[in-house]
Amino acid sequence: MDFIRKNGAGLLLCLIIAIPAWFAGQAVPVIGGPVFAILAGMIITLILREKEPFTPGINYTSKKILQAAVVFLGFGMNLTEILAKGKQSLPIIVSTIATSLIIAFILYKALKLRTNNAILVGVGSSICGGSAIAATAPVIDASDEEVAQSISVIFLFNVAAALIFPALGAALGLSNGGFGLFAGTAINDTSSVTAAATAWDGIHGSNTLEAAAIVKMTRTLAIIPITLALAIWRGRKEKNKAGSTFSLKRSFPFFVLFFVLASVITTVFRLPAEVTAPLKELSKFLIVMAMAAIGLNTNIIKLVKTGAKPIFTGFCCWLGISLVSLGMQHILGIW
Predict the structure, then answer these.
(1) What is the DSSP string of 201-215?
(2) Which residues contact 42 (CB under 8 A, 6 or more apart)?
(3) For the residues 283-292, what does the mean pLDDT come to?
(4) Mean pLDDT along residues 7-21
(5) Ramachandran category for residue 78: left, alpha or beta (phi over 0 → left; psi -120 to 50 → alpha)
(6) Residue 246 pLDDT more than 60?
(7) Which of 9, 15, 115, 240 has the fewest CB atoms below 10 angstroms from its CB?
(8) For residue 280, what are the CA distances in angstroms to 8, 54, 239?
(9) What is the model's pLDDT at position 193?
């Protein structure tokens, strides 16, 4: 009862925002529910006269619910199937992830970006958009404003990729398999990968959607080593600041361990789609709900004023990933 009394109002507000945002995302998948939820949250927080009763529940949703969403995401990942079908794309995936992280690091130094902004944009661009940001944000203790800004940057280039890539792939003479690899490695978010692959299939009468989705799921596995590496980096950074002993136990993101455990359960017990599909949808809905909370904790005016550097970083990461994806295909003789 104490939990409900403390967090109930904020949880309910986030839920009320998440439900229409979820359906809006279903209707316009290239934008997606998380973006609708963040925008709605930012607008509502401008007109809320008294936010204090909602604050504990909003903060709980933006932290704990977000971590729960990442855990449930693991039930959608059969590791055996993903690695068996996606191993051809591994050299390209590794190259594009490395490219994005290097570009983000260089621009972090050159533009004097916030550390967390650089990490979230680099990881979101290279792995799986909003899901990667959702997994990484708690590990590096990113603020809701930093998460909202990074999600907005990723969204911008998701839409651009979904609209541009099918025509670009045709102009470059990509095969159906080549475009599946291109879409799966160079587009950030699953919904935008789906949109681009569906548009390609409609034009060419092919079936690249499944291949692109498998490549995208293979990329998602990179969440595990990236978050663990960031946890160790942050722990060592805090140790150097405080002069204390580094503790892996204290720094370890245990929700990522539960994500791995969910993936292992799905793989070992070969959970059928009837079981995993609802859990995957629950994960997506919880992410939308968490993004509503993040929007409620974000000042949209400040976000716009400080957005130029993260947007430029996102553009450079996106361009670098696209060029490396195409270049690696050429080197490997796929294109």
Answers:
(1) HHHH----HHHHHHH
(2) 148, 295, 296, 298, 299, 300, 303
(3) 96
(4) 97
(5) beta
(6) no
(7) 240
(8) 25, 28, 37
(9) 92
Q: What sections of the chain are H helices per DSSP?
A: 2-27, 33-47, 55-60, 66-73, 79-86, 90-111, 115-126, 130-140, 144-172, 176-186, 190-204, 209-220, 223-242, 248-251, 254-268, 273-296, 300-305, 308-332
Q: For residues 277-301, give the mean pLDDT.
A: 94
Q: What does the alpha-carbon distance between residue 309 and residue 222 come to, in Å, rounded to a whole number?
A: 25
Which residue is associated with the tokens 């944009």? Answer: 121
AA identity, residue 41? G
Q: What is the pTM of this model?
A: 0.90
What's the pLDDT score for residue 49?
79
pLDDT digits over 129-186, tens only? 888 999 999 999 999 999 999 999 999 998 899 989 999 999 999 999 999 999 999 9
Helix (H, G, I), strand (E, B) or coil at 188: coil
Contact of 148 with 42, CB cutoff 8 Å: yes
C-alpha span between 247 and 111 (Å, rounded): 32
